[in-house]
Design a protein that fits this description.
2 domains, 264 residues, nine-stranded parallel β-sheet, Udp N-acetylglucosamine O-acyltransferase, Domain 2, alpha/beta, eleven-stranded mixed β-sheet, UDP N-Acetylglucosamine Acyltransferase, domain 1, 4 helices
């Protein structure tokens, strides 16, 4: 099957289109764009310059990928948006390319951006991330695999969202969200382990128990953070060790429970 391009679409001559790509009415594909096989670009969608995507992506009506960064420091440098395969961008979703020369905004595979979701410059999204309607990501945010960001959430620049975490609707996130946890509220605070996400990811009963033990230690009153991390490190679990490493690497601090103020 050949590439199908609607007669009203505008496709730059230098754009590289894979096999079986479909481009709908009034869509715009700018120069220096690479689109993998079997991607579907719906009506009025725009794929901006310096965007590269893999196979089997679906871009719905009005989505704009690779737009210039909304960053006052941006000075016209050549930068990029790199997208993997199997992603879905629903109506009016927007993703911007990076700010500095030769840098990139990057997304992995099988992510789902619902209507009006926005991913700003220099963000990094892993695989199987879900951004629900009206989510806003500021610049330089990292979201790890299988994170779920509910509708209307706003996330501050440079935050990290750990794998298999969940952020409740309309939350305001200004610090890192730890892996495997559920946060909610304004400002976002830890509510519990993300047990639904862990079950869906087929975590064993033993691993859930290990994470519950780590959770109780981490949010126990009266202990310094270093003491808590030392106790957590004694748990024989790769997932708990990952959680400890994520905490140690945090630069913005991380969301706590409402009653767990820092004691360091």
């Amino acid at each position: 099957m050949q590439v199908l391009i609607h007669s009203t679409a505008v496709v730059a001559s230098s754009a590289r289109l894979g096999a079986q790509v479909e481009i709908g009415p009034y869509a715009v594909i700018e120069e220096d764009v690479v689109i993998g096989a079997r991607c579907r670009i719906a009506a009025h969608a725009v794929i901006k310059r310096f965007t590269t995507m893999g196979d089997d992506n679906q871009i719905f009506e009005g989505a704009v990928l690779g737009g210039l960064p909304q960053d006052l420091k941006y000075s016209g440098a050549v930068s990029y948006l790199s997208i993997g395969s199997g992603n879905i961008f629903r109506e009016n979703a927007t993703v911007h390319r990076a700010t500095t020369p030769e840098a990139e905004t990057r997304m992995g595979n099988r992510n789902y951006l619902m209507a009006n979701a926005h991913v700003a410059h220099d963000c990094r999204l892993g695989n199987h991330v879900i951004l629900a309607n009206n989510v806003g990501l500021a610049g330089h945010i990292t979201i790890e695999d299988h994170a779920f960001i509910s509708g209307g959430v706003m996330i501050h620049q440079y935050c990290r969202i750990g794998k298999l975490s969940m952020v409740g609707g309309h939350a305001k996130v200004t610090q890192d969200v730890l892996p495997f946890l559920l946060v909610d509220g304004i400002p976002a605070a830890v509510r519990s382990l993300n047990l639904v996400g862990l079950r869906r990811a087929h975590f064993s009963h033993e691993e859930v128990r290990n994470l519950k033990q780590a959770y109780r230690i981490l949010f126990r009153d009266g202990l310094s953070l270093e003491t808590k991390l030392a106790a957590m490190s004694e748990i024989d679990s790769d997932f708990v060790r990952y959680l400890v490493r994520f905490i140690r690497e945090s630069k913005r601090g991380f969301c706590r429970t409402a009653s767990d103020a820092p004691k360091e």
